[in-house]
Amino acid sequence: MQEIIEKFKNGDKYALAKIISLVENNINYAWEIINKLPKPKKDAQIIGITGSPGAGKSTTLSKMVNKWVNQGLKIGIIAVDPSSPFSGGAFLGDRIRMRSLSGKENVYIRSVASRGSVGGLCDSIYDIVDVMKSFGFDKIIIETVGAGQSEIEVIFVADTILLVLSPNNGDEIQMFKAGIMEIADAYIVNKMDLPESDKFILQLKNTLSLESDSKSKVILPVSAIRNEGINEIIQWIDNHFDTIKSSGEYEFRKKRRTKRRVRSSIIRNIDDIIESGDFEFKNMEDLKKKIMNFICEVNNNEEN
Amino acid sequence: MGKIRVLVGKPGLDGHDRGAKVVARALRDAGMEVIYTGIRQTPEDIVNTALEEDVNVIGLSILSGAHMKLCEKILNLLKEKNAQIPVFLGGIIPEDDIPELKKMGISEVFGPGTSLEKITSKVKEIAGDN
Predict the structure, then answer these.
(1) pLDDT above 70 covers what percent of chain A?
(2) Nearest to A92 among B31, B35, B81 (CB)
(3) Which residues of chain B have pLDDT under 50?
(4) Could you tell me if B59 and B88 are in contact, meaning their C-beta atoms sit under 8 angstroms apart?
(5) Beta strand pairing status for A218-221 and B5-11?
(6) Distance from C-alpha of A1 to C-alpha of A19, rounded to nearest angstrom
(7) Would an 8 Å CB–CB cutoff place B111 in contact with chain A?
(8) Which of B31, B33, B53 lies nearest to residue A17, judging by beta carbons?
(9) What pTM value is reported for the model?
(10) Which chain B residue has its CA at the smallest distance from A105's CA?
(11) Fewer CB in 10 Å around end: N or C, chain B?
C-alpha cells in the first residue's frame, strides 16, 4: 500500500488506477484510503455529462478533452456504464469513442460500472472523484450511463452539468417533462448535421424560456463528428466555473454534495444491516422499530 | 478481490470484431466487467488501457495472422511495465503455433468453435490466479 501511495504522489497513472480499484472494492473503508492521499493542490472543476444512450456524450467529450490537453491541462475522465441486474457484469464501451485520447500523457480514463446504483452513476463516485482530485487533475469529467429521465445523481456530484441532446430525441412534449431536462447548466445539441436540427433548437429555446432562471441556461449547437462547435463548449465551461464561484453557487453545490454523500453512506450502512439481519415480518411498524433499535445498537457497539 | 475486470480488444489491422464482441458479451453475462476497446489497437494502446483500467486479465482477438509478433510485443510491454496481467487469445490461430505462444507467456488460446462456457470458466480461473 505504502509503495503504491508513493508512486501515486509521483504522478504514476497506474498507481492511481490501483487506488481507484481499492476504493471501488472497499466502499466502507474508502474514506480511510482517501485520508492517506495528499490533499488536493488544485481546485479541479468537476464536469458532469449526461444524456440518453447514443446522444454522443463520449464523442463530444473526447473532442473537448483533445482541446484542453493541447492547452496543457491534465484531465481525468470517469465513464460510467450500467451493470447487469442479472449477472452483475458490465460491458464498458465508452473508450471506443475516445480512441484519440489513448496514450496521451495528460489524460486518464477510467471505465466504471454502475454496480447496482440507480442514479446514473455508481455508489463509489464521490470517492473516485476525491482520489482523482488528490492526483492533481485540472478538470475531472464524469460521463453518466445513457440516462433516462430521472437518473439525475450527477447534479450532486458535479460543479458543471451538461446535457447532451440530439435532434432525434423526441418532440416538445419530452422537453416539458421534469427530471433530466431541468438539471443542465448547458444543453449541448449534438448531431447538428442531421435534418430538422434547427427546428429542434427552436423548440428547446421556447421550452427553456419558460423556466424561471432561463437566462442562465445556455444552448450549444454541436456536430461532434465534424468537430464543430467544440471551442464554444470549452469556453463556456471555463467561464461557468468562474461564474458559479463568484455567485456563491459553487459553495451551495458543495454543501449539497456533502449532504448527499453522507446520506448515501448512511443508507448503504442501513442496507447492509437489513441484509444481514434475520427479521420476521408480522407488522410493518413493529418491524421498523425493531430495525431502528438494531441499527442504534450496532452503532453503539461499534463506538464503544 | 472485487469484480473481475477484463480488457477485450483487437490489436493489429484486421477489422472483423464479431468474435471479440460475442466473447465480451459472454464474459459480461458471466458477471465480469468488460472494458471493450474494439479494433485496430496498437500493442501500446492495449497495455496502456489495461494498466489505466487496472484489469485482472487481457483478452485479445487476432485474425490477421500477425499473432506471434503482436503477442510478443504486448507481453514484452507488460514485462517492461512490471505488470503481471495474464493474457488469453482467440481468433484464427494455427494449432502449430499454440505451444510457442504458451511458452511465450500466453495463458490460454481459444480456437474457433470453443464453447462460451469454456471460455468464461477458463477466464475466471486465469483471473483468479492473478
Answers:
(1) 98
(2) B35
(3) none
(4) yes
(5) unpaired
(6) 9
(7) no
(8) B53
(9) 0.94
(10) B48
(11) N
